[in-house]
Every structure is written in structure tokens, then in C-alpha cells.
Amino acid sequence: MRRVLVVSLLLLVAPCAPAENLTPLFVKAKEQFRLAAYADALQTLDKLQAASERPGNEAYRAQMAPGLTFYKGACFAALGQAEEARSQFELYLTYQPNPALDPSLYPRRVIVALDEARKGMRKQAQKPAEGGSLAASYRAFPRDASVSPPGMDDSWAQGPVRYLLTAQQRDDFERLSDPVSRSEFISEFWRVRDPHPETPENEFREEFQRRVAFADARLAQDETRGSLTDRGMVFVLLGPPTWAGRKPIAIGEDSADPVGMSRYTSYDLGAALKGTNSNSQAVAIVSEMTGPGNTLPESDTSWREIWHYRRELLPSGVGYQQVDCDFISKKGYGQNVLQRDSVVLTTIEAAKSAGRSGVLARKAEQ
Q1: Predicted TM-score (pTM) of this structure
Q2: What are the DSSP calls for 185-254, one per residue?
């Protein structure tokens, strides 16, 4: 059964008083949508977005961003403006990767448009990273996707922020039982990592959350959130690679895996043919030793994806001139599994340590 989307997030208002009260605009837009006045709702949402971008409304803007993008996408979809709907829903899916809508509450056009946007993003996520496309895509990724509402339950500590949490911090957070305490913990967690506390922005948090949003949109695997996959972890901690490419795992290349080799080598075949006395016997031997059961699976089920990081993109203190992160996909082994050699592990741990101090891997070429 389709999981009904919990829309409570969209109904929330800021718990603290913003510089101006934007709640009436949000309520008005939702009522206009309910009455099928979609064009009027879009105008109200535009006013709401403009008002939220004024100084002093940063906290409110973060909370209402998912609802704003959802209702904009829903209005565009209901009006038959497919491209505009797709753009808004793709942004919304960076906040809520796995939503489902109740057909009794939303027009069919809205449900279809959201499903199409999700399918398109998943299809895009399955494409191999080639050349500098990840870095280019990240540069073009919307900046406002870095804004995401804070989680108040224990799922926050189980999300991508776990790459920065120490074991003690995770335990401390999970012992908190009320939303207020957890909200204060999260606020303090980001505050101490703010590189410029004198400004309203927290550049560290915005960059971290932007990487998370990009990974969720581009690197998802089946039902696994993109930022929680191996590729997502590397992207969140190190940013986009200098270069990325994919190639199939060739016959015999994975010598440690019996299913990754041919059962018989050319030497074995030659030795077997030496004892033959007739053409029919030779044909039978060749057929038996080179048949379908003696080769690798199709190349599209076994591949290696490599992300190459130059020195200037690595965390401070990592002495390597380059680091290659190798992700292996094979039937029975896994999809895009990071090969954790000593160089990669050292780099990942250095990135986590830097993040805990409020420094992400350097952002050259971003």
C-alpha cells in the first residue's frame, strides 16, 4: 500500500517569532489550492517566498522551504505546466526523498507529476558519473536546496549528520526525550561549527546540507537515501570529485572472486584439444569449455566506478597527491560498494575529523 504523506511538516509554523509573521500568507496559499484557485495560490506563494528572503526570516525560511516548493509544484502541475512542476518537485524531493500523496486530497495531475519527477531523478541517479559531470552538476545545483528543516526525533542522529557526530554526541542526543531539548542540541551542534558567527548565515551548515541534498537527488540506490550510500558518504565528506568514470569488470579481472573468472583458460582448452581424434569431438569440447556457463555475467551488472580527487580537494593534513575512491557493483556483492583500502580510510577519517571541527574538505572547482 502507498504510504500516505504526512503533511504535518507543511503545516508547521516557526516555533520562534520571526521578524514578521508569514503564517497568514502560507495559510492563504493552501486555502487557495484547496479551492482549486491555483493561479491565485501561485501569486500568494511568490509573495511568501519574497517575504521569507528578507533579513530576520532565516529560521522561518528553513522551515517553510519544503512546503513552499511542494505547493508551487502542485499548483504548476494542476495548471498543466509540466516543466515548472517538475523543477519544483525535484527540489521538493531533495527535502523529502520518499513522499507519497493521498489521491483523495490531490488532483491526479499533481500525483502524476510528482511520480514523474521522482522517476526522472532515480533514472538520473543510475547514470554513471563521467568526467567532471558531478562537479558541474553540483555547481548548477540550487543553493536554496541547502536549507532543510531540523529533525527533532532520533532519526536526525541516524541521518547523514552521523558522519560528523562522535559516539558520545550520538548517545547524548538519543538520551534526550523531548523536542525542545533536541532542538537546542541541534542548534548548538551547528552553532559551534559556524565559521562566521557574526553573520546570519552558517556557511558550514549550508554547504553540508547542500551536499546532502545533492547526494539524495543524484546518488540514491533503490530505497536507500542517496546521502546514506557509500557514494553519498564520500560526496558529503569530500565534495564532488575532480574526475569520475565507470568501466565494466572484465573477464578474469577479479581474480579473488570465482564467479568473476572463466572456468577454463585458453591453456586448458588447448590441452584438451590435443587428445582429440575427430572434428565432432573437438567441437563438443570447445562447446563444453567455452559455453555460457563459463563466462562473466553481462557487463552492465558488474562494473567499477572510480572517483579521483586531486591534492587540492583533499582535507588538510592528508599527505597524498591524489586519492581514488573505487566503488564496485556485482551481483551477489552489492551496488557501488566503496573499497576501503588504507588510503581511502585515512582520507575519510581525516574528513570526518575536520568536519567535527567545523571544516569541510576544500571546495576547489565548486
Answers
A1: 0.61
A2: HHHHHHHTT-S-TTSS--HHHHHHHHHHHHHHHHS-BTTB-GGGSHHHHHHHHH-S-SEEEEEEPPTTT-
One of 1.10.730, 3.30.70, 1.10.8, 1.25.40 is the CATH number of 1-126, namely 1.25.40
- Cα separation, 127 vs 65, in Å, equals 28
What stretch(es) of the chain map to CATH 1.25.40?
1-126
Q: What is the DSSP string of 114-157?
A: HHHHHHHHHHHHHSPP-BTHHHHHHHHS-GGGG--PPP-STHHH
Amino acid at 206: E
* Tens digit of pLDDT at every position of the chain (366 positions): 344 343 333 333 333 334 457 788 889 999 999 999 999 999 999 998 888 877 777 666 667 778 888 999 999 999 999 999 988 888 788 767 677 788 888 999 999 999 998 888 766 655 555 555 788 888 888 766 554 544 555 688 999 999 999 999 999 999 998 888 998 999 999 999 999 989 888 899 989 999 998 898 888 888 888 899 999 999 999 999 988 888 887 655 554 444 444 445 555 656 666 767 776 666 666 666 565 555 444 445 688 899 999 988 898 888 899 999 999 998 888 989 999 999 999 999 999 999 998 888 655 444
